[in-house]
Amino acid sequence: MRPEDKHRRATIHDVARTARVSAATVSKVLRGVKTVRADNAERVRKAVSELHYRMDPLASGLRGEQRRIIGTVVPDLESPFFGKLVTELESLAEAAGYHMIVASSRESEAREADLAARMNDWRVAGCVLVPVRSERGPGAEKLLDFGMTAVLVDRVSADERFDTVSADNHEASASVADFLIGQQGHKHILLHGATRISKAIRNRLAGFGDRARAIDPGVVIDELLSDDPLETQRAAIRYYFDGQADGHRPTAIFSLSQHSTLLVLSEIRRMGLRIPEDVALVGFDDADWMQTTWPSITAVAQPVSAIAERALTALLARVEGDHTGFPVQYLETCALLIRQSAGQTKTERPRWSGRSG
Amino acid sequence: MRPEDKHRRATIHDVARTARVSAATVSKVLRGVKTVRADNAERVRKAVSELHYRMDPLASGLRGEQRRIIGTVVPDLESPFFGKLVTELESLAEAAGYHMIVASSRESEAREADLAARMNDWRVAGCVLVPVRSERGPGAEKLLDFGMTAVLVDRVSADERFDTVSADNHEASASVADFLIGQQGHKHILLHGATRISKAIRNRLAGFGDRARAIDPGVVIDELLSDDPLETQRAAIRYYFDGQADGHRPTAIFSLSQHSTLLVLSEIRRMGLRIPEDVALVGFDDADWMQTTWPSITAVAQPVSAIAERALTALLARVEGDHTGFPVQYLETCALLIRQSAGQTKTERPRWSGRSG
DNA sequence: CTTGCAGAATAAACCGATTTATCTTCGGAT
DNA sequence: ATCCGAAGATAAATCGGTTTATTCTGCAAG
């Protein structure tokens, strides 16, 4: 008898031997199959704990078509948004008895396709993909080729091949238009975005534009969109403001991404403009620092938890059940957090306007 | 012949049949073993590309003691620091021909131990562990029990069981003392940290204190350390400042973590103190927003890339080579980024700042 | 006292690779 | 012509589970 050799791990056969049953019976007990006599099941459980047996999740899935693994691919892991998304997904997957493997495409579509293929290599049961650009990228293409079941998240619109889940970028941006134009009466607004190619950004753009024109056809909307390097973008902002005669300067800015918000904020400060007196600022995507910086930044907060939960629920439904139903587009509603940089009344300003928590 | 069935993937045997060699030969070709006749190798490669064959990484490692997988466990995935660390680790692991699986212990030591066990289940070749608290946590204990080869990162000091890699917290904090006391001449400094239990924080504390006393034995150092809930900590800061007579107020604050910096900054602003005129601020751990907020925050930047590279290099050295040498402690040097909140001359000052001063 | 049958148990096949031990080949030395 | 050894190829064992097909129970019905 040698299961106690050095560092050799106990296998299902060791357990079987100890419990004096067959490996098949052990397997049944472990997976909760009911056709096992009570005394045998008990002996198996005892042996398992005696030998500290733990199943090898890889060998376990080897025989079947798919393993109890969910693959997740995100464009990056350095932004808190995806970090939080991944954390919640993993938590949900674990609760459902799945392992999760995570990979970052590092904003590269080529790598995205690569990772999709790799998820296929791992025989994952399903895949959560946050595409670099949109649902029509090489990643989704590969998933389709391989016949994998998958859910596309965040940078997507409706798709006829996969379920999609994202924040309701269109509606959230529209409500920013409501707020800035309808409520605050701004007549001239600058939209700033770092990139044109991401689907989410395009939806934010469209959502704001549509509603803005519906509320006030006379509103002037300028757009400053580019994927140039940082310094070029900074220069572009200054150039834009220099070109505006004082009376024709925009009175509000809607920045379409967190990165964009930071950039705009930085340049506004450098130009010596006051927020919100000279120009109001609303950013899409909230961050910790936005409620602490002065002035605190009004921002659209994305419902990360809701997105994660919807994505995994939809995926598991496809994996474990109906594999054929029509693809669904899920849109989760965002919240507009009104702070000092736009809209918050600044009457109470004794020491510093309180309640930043 | 049915490799073209539906969605059945080609296996090594399909390739072998197509190339009219044995599976063993295919395996050799794929792993670059030289003892294969050129024409056979060629036919194998042709078959591989014809059938779009891709090896199953799980089945591949099944037979050996360990698989070409590196496991990584971090306390959370929502902070950019760990996000970046994981990204770099994955990139390096991939370059070395390893897969990487990532998991977040969500700041729980119980879960940390759990994940260590799970990494063992996966038969990873090695494990990078960022412990929740220190190298003497339950995670490291489990790694040791299982006889896994591992490297401990970030929240660690020297250890006699594992290689450790971290920023040189002690030295970096000492250089903050050099800067604030030696160079700027501060006589009364507040240290603020969110937690006492993390090893990194303790090293920062000690590093600052040791150097500070060495430079100027008369310097007054107050410490405000707690793990209380957010609002309690905020109150503690206000209480501390209220208790200080105007002349005895600290003239500089050194916040020991990013979270801490945000908290301190928020409360300083709420109290209406000016930075750096009334109080200077230096934070440990840099973040994007710190260079954009006003005043921009002087901060210690951790060498993430260097840490990642060192960690993976050390781990692979243990995995592939010497498994017996003495554990090494690697300390990577940080950079002090001097900005407006402490030390930087403020020639160009945005005009809207004049309001309160 | 058979027979039938359902519930349990298990031996053996299987998954897709690697590794080992065995078997061919073939060229060169005796 | 014979023998030997090295290079190359391969059948078969192996890894740790799951699944299938078969066997074994025990008990009720005929």
Outline the structure in words:
Two copies of one chain form a homodimer. Chain A is of the alpha/beta class. Chain A has three domains: 12-55, lambda repressor-like DNA-binding domains (434 Repressor (Amino-terminal Domain), Orthogonal Bundle); 67-167 and 304-332, Rossmann fold; 169-302, Response regulator (Rossmann fold). Chain A is built from twelve helices and twelve strands. Chain A has a six-stranded parallel beta sheet, with helices on both faces. A six-stranded mixed beta sheet of chain A has the order 7-6-8-9-10-12, sandwiched between helices. In chain A, helix 7 (138-145) links the parallel strand 3 and strand 4. In chain A, helix 2 (23-30) crosses helix 3 (38-51). Chains A and B meet through helix 4, helix 5, strand 2, helix 6 and helix 11 of A and helix 4, helix 5, strand 2, helix 6 and helix 10 of B. The structure holds a DNA duplex (30 and 30 nucleotides).
Under CATH at level 1, the class of the largest domain in chain A stands as Alpha Beta
Largest sheet of chain A: 6 strands, parallel
Ranges of chain A where pLDDT stays below 50 over 5 or more residues in a row are: 1-5, 347-357
- The general outline of chain A is elongated
As for the number of domains of chain A, it is 3
The CATH topology of the largest domain in chain A turns out to be Rossmann fold
Strand order of the largest sheet of chain A: 2-1-3-4-5-11
Helix-and-strand structural type of chain A = alpha/beta
CATH superfamily caption of the largest domain in chain A? Response regulator
Beta strands of chain A, count: 12
Question: What's the SSE pattern of chain A?
Answer: HHHHEHEHEHEEHEHEHEHEEHEE
Estimate the mean pLDDT confidence of chain A. Answer: 91
